[in-house]
UniProtKB/TrEMBL annotation:
Domain Transposase IS66 central: 7-218
InterPro entries: Transposase-related (IPR052344), Transposase_IS66_central (IPR004291)
Protein name, as recorded: Transposase
Pfam families the UniProt entry points to: DDE_Tnp_IS66
Amino acid sequence: PAVIDGSLAAPGLLTWVAISKYLDHLPLYRLEQIAARQQVNLSRSTMSEWIGRIGYALQPLADRLAEMLKQRQVLHADETPVKQLDPGAGKTKRAYLWSYRSNDLDTGPPIVVFDYQSSRSGQHARDFLHGWQGSLMVDDFGGYKKMFATDAQFAVTELACWAHARRKFFDLQVSGAHPQAAEALRRIGKLYAVEEAARAMDHIARAEHRQQNSLPILV
């Protein structure tokens, strides 16, 4: 069956348009120019309609990926600002691409799901993860905090991100604002080495390895 009913666009052409736009970051007007050099009349308005239809066709796959993601016990989340055209306003406004991904140490295949939203409200994360129980690794953004509260409807454990913590100490070291920044960076580097050594271990052996090697670094 055709991806788009009644369309002459084959799956290969639709795939090329989608990959060129979202993976190679080529705007549709450039794809129009590329097609024209090959003597192919392919308007950006047509491709824009295709993109919308492709998204509709792939929605069941995105929903299934989200279901599979929420079967994992450890997830990562982050939100990235993006510029969104505001029709009629003559300018752009800020929207957010919320990202949720599985943990690198999971035995299953990696999963990443993006949730495009108009704001940075923590309600978006709570809606996406509704019903999920596990451990969530995030930065210190306050929008996630309601999920970690002891009286929350969520059974979610907060995992703080060492990469974000390291960035703050690095900035302090560069500015010379705090003499202990170098020591903090040294300890975080040792933690990274402990994690690298444990990468191939199962979760039981990794937990024991961390207790023996990571804990002394932090106390």
